[in-house]
Design brief:
Helix content: 25-40%
Bound molecules: alpha-D-galactopyranose
Largest sheet: 8 strands, mixed
Strand content: 15-25%
Oligomer: single chain
Number of helices: 10
Length: about 350
């Protein structure tokens, strides 16, 4: 039997643009050199099985999408079922398959392990079915699979980044049009990701509640999404103020990257963190301490990344000092919180695709 084709999809780190994708705002985000690999071996009995090298249990579902994704056990199989059901809705005739999955994206860290999982599984199943799905359509399908499988009303930035990033670049993404500009990362800088040691599972955080609160602001103002609100309208409405000011910061950040204005990047990240904390209410004390520790250790700027409420902080550091900054910041953080942080210097990776040709 020929070896099954293997697909990979990377996790991502959101450099700036928190809680704005679902308001059709802009984000700057990059895929990282941590990914989920998935391959699908044909099987003839109309079932999809899945095994993961990292997660317990074996998944066994019908491939005609008759399985309700939210009832699948083990719970990680809900995502497999969600992907299968969304692909079926799109007209893909899912074929029986044994999926093998392996991941190096830390789980519950805010690095989009779930988006990477959805995209990698979708690519393997789509390939097995001889169906075509790529780019923004693939990202949208993966996003919908997350909604169907977990009920988390995530936006589109994680899946778009995992699908569309380029090696050495970040994406400046317009979440309304899904237009992408690939912006090179300055060679003088490194991207540091530091896990606070506080795990979080998106379903168990107030993410959906925060989203609903900011959508209530849009409704109050009579706009569909906060992209269409002005600063004047939201001046006294913290959730709205976060969204409108964050969108402006993202555009300034993308402009600074384009103009190679490195000094502008750090302050924008710090302002983003402060707004996420004070106006949006998605930080926790550990993340604030970690941001302080990174800046105190010499980072240009830092902010919480992903949904917040735990997980990771992202920082930009001068290339030559990144390791030393990480060491100093993690020591200071450990001393202040008693928690065990983990730091990585991450590289901007290419978006999802086949690992090797058939
Ligand atoms: C999670 C969601 C994203 C986005 C971020 C917050 O990562 O999956 O769509 O909303 O939170 O910016």
């Amino acid at each position: 039997m020929p070896e099954p084709r293997e697909f990979r999809a990377p996790g991502r780190v959101n450099l700036i643009g928190g809680q704005v994708d679902y308001h059709e705002g802009w984000v700057v985000s990059m895929a990282i050199d941590r990914d989920v690999h998935a391959s699908a071996r044909p099987r003839a009995d109309g079932r999809i099985t899945a095994r993961s090298r990292d997660l317990d249990g074996a998944v066994d579902i019908a491939c005609d999408a008759t399985t309700d994704p939210r009832t699948v056990v083990p719970a990680w199989g809900r995502t497999v079922a969600g992907v299968a059901s969304v692909l079926t809705e799109l007209g893909c005739r899912i074929a029986g398959a044994d999926l093998e999955i392996a991941s190096t994206v830390p789980i519950g860290a805010g690095l989009s392990s779930s988006a990477a999982f959805e995209v990698a599984c979708a690519l393997a199943l789509v390939d097995r079915a001889g169906f075509a799905l790529a780019g923004a359509d693939l990202a949208r399908a993966a996003q919908r699979a997350e909604h169907v499988a977990t009920g988390v009303p995530c936006g589109i930035q994680d899946q778009m980044t995992s699908v569309c990033n380029r090696d050495g670049h970040a994406i400046f993404l317009d979440c309304r049009t899904l237009e992408i500009e690939h912006v090179p990362l300055p060679a003088e800088l490194r991207v540091l990701v530091v896990h606070s040691g506080v795990p979080r599972v998106l379903e168990a955080t107030p993410y959906a509640q925060r989203r609903a609160e900011s959508e209530a602001v849009a409704a109050q103002l009579g706009v569909r999404v906060l992209r269409d609100a002005s600063l004047d309208q939201v001046r006294d409405l913290p959730r709205g103020r976060h969204a409108v000011t964050e969108m402006a910061r993202v555009r300034a950040f993308a402009g600074a990257l384009r103009a190679h204005d490195l000094d502008a990047l750090g302050p924008l990240m710090l302002a983003s963190h402060a707004s996420s904390r004070d106006d949006m209410g998605v930080s926790i004390p550990e993340l604030d301490i970690l941001v302080d520790a990174l800046v105190g250790a010499g980072a240009l700027g830092a902010r919480l990344t992903g949904a917040g409420f735990g997980g990771c902080v992202v920082a930009l550091a001068p290339a030559g000092d990144a390791d030393a900054i990480a060491a100093r910041a993690t020591a200071a953080y450990r001393e202040r919180t008693g928690r065990a942080p983990v730091a990585w210097v991450v590289r901007a990776a290419a978006g999802a695709g086949a690992v090797r040709a058939r």
